[in-house]
Every structure is written in structure tokens, then in C-alpha cells.
Amino acid sequence: MEEQQRSQHTQSVEHIGIMGGTFDPIHNAHLAVAEEVRVALNLSYILFIPTGQPPHKRTHHLTPAQHRLAMVERAIASNPFFACSRIEVDWAGPSYTTDTLKRLREQLGSRACFYFIIGWDSLLDLHKWHDPEGILAQLTALVAVGRPGYSASGALGNPFDQDNLDNTEYNTKLEERLPGITRRLRLVQAPMLEISSTDLRQRVAQGRPIRYQMPDAVTEYIREHHLYQ
Ligand SMILES: Nc1ncnc2c1ncn2[C@@H]1O[C@H](COP(=O)(O)OP(=O)(O)OP(=O)(O)O)[C@@H](O)[C@H]1O
Ligand SMILES: O=C(O)c1ccc[n+]([C@@H]2O[C@H](COP(=O)([O-])O)[C@@H](O)[C@H]2O)c1
């Protein structure tokens, strides 16, 4: 009986990949990275969390949250291992990741393990985020993926460029910025797709194609709602 209970307990642990982003708009690199991480780490599912008020993009013009959320919902609809959360969109204040993780824990309970997925570009700024130590403490892993264009020009370089994810030189430099980070960090080699939301917004404004860089349902949504014109 005890064994059975233990096995039920083990089975109910959920390993949840968290893909936070402004998603203005969501694109195929977000989706490909999320799927790669899900399979590589054998996660239960990926939770996409569009930001409400991104704390670091206050001066940017931002598409209203309901549109960014709707585009995420359309983009992930065909993948049963992808879900979307309104947790940040429904929150009145700035979307601090440390607070989002606390609220997610209240919603999902103690058996949820969180794996926060982050592009190498964002990882390099993590030490400047609100309460970065608190973020690390709430995660089972911080999962970094490479992003084309963020390489030797940056202060740290980019381990994904060299296909050598075990290079300890990066660990030392990352630890100097944020002590304790390497204990939580997992690097996953995901497809390197040179797609960015900034470029896609500019493409729409200039009448250039965006098809094949995002799911058709998102392209159609952008057209129907006259976004980014
Ligand atoms: N092409 C990409 N490859 C790997 N990771 C990416 C890529 N694009 C975005 N990400 C990661 O996805 C997360 C959410 O990104 P975000 O929604 O800001 O998209 P973006 O393309 O960077 O947008 P913008 O150009 O508006 O800054 C971040 O962790 C970011 O590093
Ligand atoms: O909590 C913070 O201080 C913080 C600062 C910058 C970014 N973030 C989160 O990082 C994720 C990716 O952000 P972005 O700008 O690449 O869309 C998204 O979930 C943001 O809410 C969080």
C-alpha cells in the first residue's frame, strides 16, 4: 500500500517548462525552442506566459495584451503539450518573474517543478532582473537556449556558437554576475532560428512577408486585426 502511494506521489510530480515572453508577436523560434526543451528534458508540458506589463520594456510601444495572448493561443493550439497562462496578463502590476513564480506555485501546488526557459540574450541580463536570487531559488532549472546573433560581440561570448555546452569558462563568468546560477543552469541545444519579433513587426509595417516565420493562424490574426501597420 505504502509503495502504491509512493508511486502515485511520484507520478503526480509535474515538470513544467515555463516560456515567458512579450510575444509581440509569438514566432516559430519560440515554438521550436519550447518543443526542443520539452523533449530534451522530458517535461510534462510547456506553459507559455505572455507578459502583462514587461518591467524592462516600459518605454516600448506594446501591442495590447489581449492580442498578444490571442496570438499565443492560436500558435500553440495544435500541440497538446503546450498551454498558455493568463497569470501575467491578468495581473495589474509589472510582470516580475519572481512574483509570477510565487503565484504559479499557489495555483499548481508543491508538486510542480518549474523549468524557466530563457534565450541566451535574456540570460545575459538576468542579474539585472527584479530579485534574480529569488527566481533561481524557485526553479528546478533555468534552461538556456542559444540565439543567433548573440555571440563574440557580447562580454561573455556564446557557448552555443562552439557546440561546447560544457565549457566551464562561461560558468565562472556567469557566477561572477549572479552567484548560484550555475547550480540551476541547464543548456539545451535548440534549433538556431534567426527570427525576432522586432524584425517581424518591421516586416509587417514595410509590407514584407512574414509567412513561414510563424504559424499561419498568427499571420492571419495579424492581418485580420491590422496589427503592426
Ligand atoms: N530566435 C530565438 N531563438 C532563441 N530564443 C529566442 C528567440 N527569440 C526569442 N527568444 C527567447 O524567447 C523569450 C521571449 O522572447 P520575446 O517575446 O521577447 O521575443 P523576441 O523575438 O526577443 O522579441 P523582441 O524582438 O520584441 O525583443 C526570451 O527568453 C528570448 O530570449
Ligand atoms: O522579472 C524581471 O525583472 C524580468 C525582467 C526582464 C524579463 N523578464 C521576463 O523574461 C521573459 C522574457 O522577456 P522578453 O523581454 O524577452 O520578452 C518574460 O517572461 C519577462 O517577463 C522578467
Automatic annotation (TrEMBL):
<keyword id="KW-0067">ATP-binding</keyword>
<dbReference type="GO" id="GO:0005524">
    <property type="term" value="F:ATP binding"/>
</dbReference>
<feature type="domain" description="Cytidyltransferase-like">
    <location>
        <begin position="18"/>
        <end position="203"/>
    </location>
</feature>
<comment type="function">
    <text>Catalyzes the reversible adenylation of nicotinate mononucleotide (NaMN) to nicotinic acid adenine dinucleotide (NaAD).</text>
</comment>
<keyword id="KW-0808">Transferase</keyword>
<dbReference type="InterPro" id="IPR014729">
    <property type="entry name" value="Rossmann-like_a/b/a_fold"/>
</dbReference>
<dbReference type="InterPro" id="IPR004821">
    <property type="entry name" value="Cyt_trans-like"/>
</dbReference>
<dbReference type="InterPro" id="IPR005248">
    <property type="entry name" value="NadD/NMNAT"/>
</dbReference>
<keyword id="KW-0520">NAD</keyword>
<protein>
    <recommendedName>
        <fullName>Probable nicotinate-nucleotide adenylyltransferase</fullName>
        <ecNumber>2.7.7.18</ecNumber>
    </recommendedName>
</protein>
<dbReference type="Pfam" id="PF01467">
    <property type="entry name" value="CTP_transf_like"/>
</dbReference>
<keyword id="KW-0662">Pyridine nucleotide biosynthesis</keyword>
<dbReference type="GO" id="GO:0009435">
    <property type="term" value="P:NAD+ biosynthetic process"/>
</dbReference>
<dbReference type="GO" id="GO:0004515">
    <property type="term" value="F:nicotinate-nucleotide adenylyltransferase activity"/>
</dbReference>
<comment type="similarity">
    <text>Belongs to the NadD family.</text>
</comment>
<comment type="pathway">
    <text>Cofactor biosynthesis; NAD(+) biosynthesis; deamido-NAD(+) from nicotinate D-ribonucleotide: step 1/1.</text>
</comment>
<keyword id="KW-0547">Nucleotide-binding</keyword>
<keyword id="KW-0548">Nucleotidyltransferase</keyword>
